[in-house]
Structure formats: C-alpha cells, structure tokens
Amino acid sequence: MSKKINSYQVMAAMIRAFFEAFGCGVIDSNYPDSDFATRNDEKNIKQVMLDHYENISKVFFDVLFPFIARIQYEDVEQALNDANKEFADKGASILDYLRFACREQNFYDALVSEYQRNFGFLLKGQFSTIPEHIEGRIKGEAYAFIDEPTAINCLVRIIFSAYVAGLHNANKKQHIDQSTILRMLLINTQLMINDCPLKNTEADLIEQFLEACGSQDNLNVLVNTMNDMYRDLAEEDNNSDPNLN
Questions:
Q1: Which helix (H) or strand (E) is 6 found in, with range?
Q2: Mean pLDDT of the chain
Q3: pTM for the whole thing?
C-alpha cells in the first residue's frame, strides 16, 4: 500500500516546480549552449524573464488547475464538470476557478502565498533553494492527502508542461534539455516526497532518484510518466517547436 502525503506539502512542491520549470524553459531557449552557471546567473534570469512575467499567471492556471483539483477531490472529472457548470456564463475569473479547485479557504490562501513567494524569487532572478523552500512553505493541516505515485505522476507532468510552455513563450526553436529536466525532477520530487535535502549527494543519479522517490515502485512511476510525456510531446509536435532529442 502506497504512502500518502500532506496536500500542503504536495501543493508547495508543485508550485515551486512550476516556476522553476517555466523559468528554465525560457532561460534554456535564450542560452541554449551555455553552461549551468551562465543559465543560472541572476542578471541573466531577470533579463530574459522581463518579457514573460505577464504570461505567468495564465500559464500557471492552465498547467496547475487540474492538478490542484486532483489533490483536493477524489473524483477530479466530476469536480471539473461541477466547476464548469457553476461558472458557466458568470464571467468567472482564474481566481474563482482556483478557489474552487482548492476547495477550502485555508488551502487557497496557502496556494496564493506559495505563488507570491515563488514569483518573488523569480523577480530577483532566483529559484528558491531547498532550505528556503522547506523553511518558507506553508505547513497547514491537510483536508486531503494524496498517495505518492499519484503525486509523482502529477509532478512530472507539471514539470514537462511548464518547461515546454517556457520554451514556447520564448518563441525560439529549441531542444528540450534533458539535464535540465532530470535536475528539476530530482530536486522537486525530493521536496514533495521527503521535504528535506538529499542525504547522499555523492551517489550516482539512479541512487539519488531512488532516495528522492522513496521506493522502487515510485521511481518506476516517475520514469514511466517521463517516457509518456516525451512520447506525447513528440506525437503532438513531431520535429517542430520544441524539438525533441
């Protein structure tokens, strides 16, 4: 039987992953052949993000809304249908839909706080570090818990979707950088599942992923979902923007 995770912990990791993935998509498009230090230079991040800050809220909603609902509702499809019925012809805003997905006010308030916190880091040309994320995230009493395999599946899809959105926003023909994807998957899975830094940073990549995932079954979910995303993206846009290796 798989373990379950506090929904606040999952939501915080998902939001951090979104901002990192979207930002890295934009950055990788502008510095495709640069080293890690150049891509993560604060001045470079702030400069390339200047033209994209206004797009973040819409992309955030498009990517995160179904996954936030998946955390809070057992029957996600029914919840989304209910949302569409409730807000039909009412001119509902993005915030109305997100408030519905969050289900409870405290969870919505935490989501807004996490959004603002991560946006603030991006404005400074940064992504939150592991210690900053752990110390700063909202640690609320969960209404709902989500099993680890489902949470990992959602996280992988968020990272791919947000990263590709960043590539598209930059309007540049660019390959998906697998090293960027793997780094984001490792860090954000560790935060979501374990809520602490990796213990064995000198281990090989597979061992680090196994530590982050917590079990071989969870690691299999991560790898299978990653492969599904690569395949789906290739089918949607074969050999066009973005190009897949």
A1: strand 4-6
A2: 89
A3: 0.91
